[in-house]
Amino acid sequence: MSWIIQIRKYATVGLGSAITDFSIYGVLIHFADFSPEGANLISRPCGGLFSFAFNKLWTFNRKQLTGTHRELIRFGIVWIISYCASILLVWGFHQLFMKHQYLPLGLADSILHLTGWKIHMVEVLPKLCAESLVGIGLFLSHRFWTFRHH
After folding, report:
1. Which of 63, 75, 85, 128 is deepest in the core (most CB within 10 A)?
2. Considering the entire predicted model, what is its pTM?
3. pLDDT (mean) for 12-17
4. CA-CA distance, 139 to 134, in Å (whole number)?
5. For the ranges 17-26, 111-120, 125-134, which has the lowest average pLDDT?
6. How distant, in Å, are the alpha carbons of 72, 78, 100 from that of 44?
7. pLDDT computed for residue 20 by the predictor
């Protein structure tokens, strides 16, 4: 399968994973009064489970059961490393944005409040930045190690 097709499929699965992750993240912050770091501890594993299933079956076309145990272990290793990176990056970006709250963040907050969400960009932006960086490393790791064809 060509790189372009795989990247498109990976991006589609990533969008589904991100929707799962960010929805749970937003609900935990909005309804359960979680901190951004605490919400990320719960939301990201949910997105990870979505990602494994759909990347295995669709993106990397690994429908056979042979090797699933090995792929799951490899996925877990890559995912744990990316999870730790995500936690550190969300924390770091949150600290950065708390110190430097810019005017555009206030405008984005106004838009979010119009939709009914009582969440602030200073809580969302760290997650967006962290997951963007982590996503690149995940694709490369899964492409060349986790779901590699022998």
Report:
1. 75
2. 0.66
3. 93
4. 9
5. 111-120
6. 17, 13, 26
7. 94
- Spatial neighbors of 45 by CB under 8 A, at least 6 apart, are 83
- Please determine, for residue 103, whether its predicted confidence score (pLDDT) is greater than 80: no
What 3-state DSSP class applies to 64? coil
| Tokens found for residue 114 | 């119009």
Q: What are phi and psi of 28, to 5 degrees?
A: -65, -40
Kindly list the domain boundaries of the chain, sorted by start residue: 3-146
Look over the chain and give the mean of its residue pLDDT values, rounded to a whole number.
83
Query: Which residues have C-beta within 8 Å of that of residue 68, sequence separation ≥ 6?
Result: 56, 62
Residue type, 118: K
Q: Which pLDDT does position 54 carry in this prediction?
A: 92
The count of residues in the chain is 150
Q: Distance between CA atoms of 104 and 123, rounded to whole angstroms?
A: 14
**Which helix or strand (DSSP H or E) is residue 99 part of?**
helix 68-99
| CA distance readout (Å), 14 to 54, 58, 134 | 9, 12, 11
